[in-house]
Amino acid sequence: MAPTLLELAHWSTWAVCAVIKLPQLAAVLAAGSARGVSTGSLLLELAGFLVFLRYQIYYGYPLQTYLEYPIIIAQDVILLLFILHFNGNKKRALFYGVIFWGGWYMITLRKWIIDLALNLCTFISAASKLAQLRCLWQTKDSGQVSALTWSMSAYTCASKQWAACKDIYNHNDYE
User: Quick one: 121 exposed, middle or buried, by C-beta within 10 A (0-12, 13-18, 19+)?
Assistant: First the structure.
């Protein structure tokens, strides 16, 4: 029964991640505005996802451990482009693209750099959420922030943690 629940956790996480940013994208598009959505928060989130994905690829982890990250990254990039468009900052897209592209390669120049970058991912993720909350506090308006996207994010975090614990537990049973 445990492997079935574990597979369900993996598959449901992938399914949710396939559409996780769509409610946010829909809200921004429908309003024609990115009010209440923090560009800084999205950039930090994207940086954390890219570091995690690069780490997984660098060390040759199985695809199932990081399959959702390329999907979320693609959605984040699309969302970032819409936010930049609605905020009148389309020219910054190229700058951000160059920074992320360069970072993608630079973090693997030395093993210690990628290891340090991964260790900082928790702080980057927390900073991302704090930046979004700060934006909400400053604007006093949730604007186009999607509660559904945040809820789906909470679910995927919880299911990934549970699945990781079960994977470790099941792996230790076979040793």
Answer: middle
Lookup: tokens for 96: 């951000």
Strands (E), the chain: none
22 CB-near residues (< 8 Å, 6+ apart) = 75, 149
Phi (first) and psi of residue 145, to 5 degrees = -70, 130
Query: Looking only at Cα atoms, what is the longest distance across the chain?
Result: 57
Distance (Å, whole) CA 54 – CA 19? 22
pTM of the model: 0.80
End-to-end CA distance of the chain: 20
Encode pLDDT of 55-98 as tens digits. 999 999 888 778 889 999 999 999 999 999 998 888 899 999 99
Closest CA to 39 of 11, 79, 8: 79
In whole angstroms, give the CA distance from residue 14 to residue 126: 22
Rounded CA gap, 90 and 123, in Å?
A: 28
Q: Exposed e or buried b for every residue in 133-172, given b needs 16+ CB within 10 A? A: eebbeeeeeebbbbeebeebbeebeebbeebeebeeeeee
Identify the residue whose tokens are 């819409």: 82
Q: SS3 of 79, please?
A: helix
